[in-house]
Structures are given as C-alpha cells and as structure tokens.
Amino acid sequence: CSYPAPKGTYEAMNYGEKLPYSSKSIVSHSCISCKEPTDQNEQNYWDQQDADQVADVCERLYEYSGKCEKNLNIWSYKDNSACAYISTLKQPLGIPTNVPAKVLAGIFGVATAILGGAAIFLYNKSKRTNVALAGGTAEAELA
Prior knowledge:
This protein is mainly alpha-helical. Helices cover 39% and strands 0% of the residues. It has helices at 9-13, 56-64, 83-88, 99-129, 138-142. The mean pLDDT is 78.
C-alpha cells in the first residue's frame, strides 16, 4: 500500500464494523520471560521435565540464531559461524544510510529551481521580443 485509504473506507465495506487493531497494536511491546514456569499438569507442553530453567521457545531461538562468540570468555564450543555475516551488517565509515538520499534530494531541488528560473527568464525574453512597432498587434504584423 502506497497511499492510505480515506477514513471510513473499511467501515463502509464491512457494514459499519471497525477495522481490527486500528486503535491498538496486535504486537505487544512488552518482554516475555524466558524463565520456565513451574506449573504442572502438562500446561507447559512438557518442558518442565528438562534440567534447565529456560523456556523451550527461548532455547530454540538461541539455538537457531547466528552467533559470533569469538570474544566471549567461555571454555568450550565457541560458535563463530556467523561472524562474517554479522560484520557485513555494520555501516561503512559510520555514514547513516539516509545521507545519499538527502544529497540527491538536495541536488534535485537545486536543479529544479535553476530550470524553473531559466524557464521564466526565457518566457519573459520571448514576450519582450514580440513588440509591435507600428502600433498594431504582433499577430497583425505577421499576417
């Protein structure tokens, strides 16, 4: 979607119903705990049987994530498989990514102003050159 729809479009097409999640986000911005809950009766998808106190979803998230542990002070099994990829994510020379866009927008604006001024100048110059010297109009002289 490039342009927002006018207000009331969804309601008009859906019998007056409000657009779901238009006033409150569907995504929560609060953190969830990775500590394993202590509830029993298999309400934790049988995750409480393992020896750790970390929720299974957090364990899997960590296992699947790319890691660069070369500077960590751990004694075994350092995982450096994603170091090369992570190093490519840094911005070169600390230049923010929106600077080239701003520079190009500035060049475009200056060029537009110059061309607009040139167009006005040439229009005024062409009006001054069509002056009727015999007292009639310029079109009558040509006919």
